[in-house]
Amino acid sequence: MPNQPEPQNWPRWFDPRSRSLGTFGFILNRITALGLTLYLMLHLVALGQLAQGATAYDGFVALMKSPWIKIGELLVIAAGVIHGLNGIRIALNSFGIGVRRQQLMFIGLMVIAVVFIAFFAWKMFMEG
Amino acid sequence: MTTTSWQVRFKVYRQRTGQKGTYQSYVLEVDPDEYILDAVERIWAQHDRTLTYRHACHHSTCGACGMRVNGREKLTCITTIRSVAKNGGTVTIDPLRNFPVLSDLVVDMGNFFLRMEKSEFDSVASEEHANLPYEKSPGNAEKAERLVDCIECGLCISACPAANTDHEYVGPAVLAAIHLMYSQSPSQKLIDLADHHTGLWRCHSAYECTQVCPSSVDPAWRIMDMRKKIIGNRLKSVFGRQEKVKKNA
Amino acid sequence: MDKTLSPKRLEGSGRWLIKIISGLFIVIFLGIHFVVNHLVAPGGLLTYADVVAYYQHPAIVAMEIGFLVVVITHAFLGLRSILLDLNPSAAILRAANILLFLVGVAAIIYGAWLAITIANVKI
Lengths: 128, 249, 123
What we know:
The structure holds three protein chains of three kinds. By secondary structure, chain A is mainly alpha-helical. Chain A has helices at about 20-45, 55-65, 65-95, 100-125. Chain A is globular. By secondary structure, chain B is α+β, with helices and mostly antiparallel strands. In chain B, the strands form three sheets. Chain B has a five-stranded mixed beta sheet. In chain B, α6 packs across α9. The model of chain B has no long low-confidence stretch (mean pLDDT about 95). Chain C starts with 12 loop residues before the first helix and ends with a helix. Chains in contact: A-B, A-C, B-C. The interface between B and C is medium-sized, with 26 and 20 residues.
């Protein structure tokens, strides 16, 4: 029957319309979780270059200096920072800490996330 | 004395069993301080007698008139038209999400009520237990009794992202009921219901339940407090100091 | 069938605690991993020689392998949790459990082998 819970409704997890701040936290957590898991696998495979010796690894790192890769790496850092800080909020809430102020906590932690991301962006793009 | 009159278009979800859902629009002259439920009633009374919807008390104690208004869960008997629309604007009315649609704005709440029953939900409790621990209770709180806050309207389940995809997830209202009953009489049955993949662990902290609850149940707080109790019990059991609870019969 | 009183618990407080504790360790290890790898080490560990020198410390090897274990545990428990949100059939869940376990163990063995291999490279 229509309108009932079904696995096919999963795209609606990511629909923030008519929803509150907590849902943004849920959406961000889920997207960053999937992104980071994918990156983890790629990272492990890429590090296999180390086993091939100095020429392979150094050549691979040279490839990674392209601006597009750097943007990708910044996205990974952003995902890690957002997921980690949001995770801290969820963990604290699950021990009864800060539940009534969860929206304030989310805003505060995301401000910290933006500061971290801005710092790493500066380090990566300005310092090289 | 003048009465304000607005012209508002109501886009209402229509569906018959076995058919695809569509929207039908009705333009009404309304007093903006009337409620959405008043408008729905007027559509039924004066425009379309085939429209089906639920209503009963009209003063937010029965929980029957929950619907989605402009995409957000509302108790329509206490939602003024002014709060969701402008003069000349449009209001979209949909049935609650995550419940099968029986007809138009009427959804099947049967499974939900069965689960509330399984949680041993009692709608009367002492003031002390009916109030949330962070709410102030009067001096004779353990002696006075009142109806508890939950009116079983289902808005929390409609708003919950986990309830979107898993029909076996009991939902925020049932978990809040478990918390309420557990705080009065801890039992292993309630722990087993809550500490389950269809219970507490489907919650992913979106907290929409508390945002949409019209009755100050604060299901999100209750879910997290129940988690704290269960995790605390589990850690204590490692050191042989588990809380004594009533065993299953 | 309403399985809300099903005795079989596919996810409970135990697995959740492991997810949270591994998450906490990730925050700690990732902090160390990132600060050392990219901020403290001169050149940011971007040459083969720097990586080999870094992995000469046994504590670093142990930490990085530990980091890998907690990351895999947290990530794969999380993936399983997302799958449970979709109310999978018993067969799909069983297949996913086996796949996640095998891939997870393989990733840990591979990562540990890599770390130990680099640690054994003579400078």
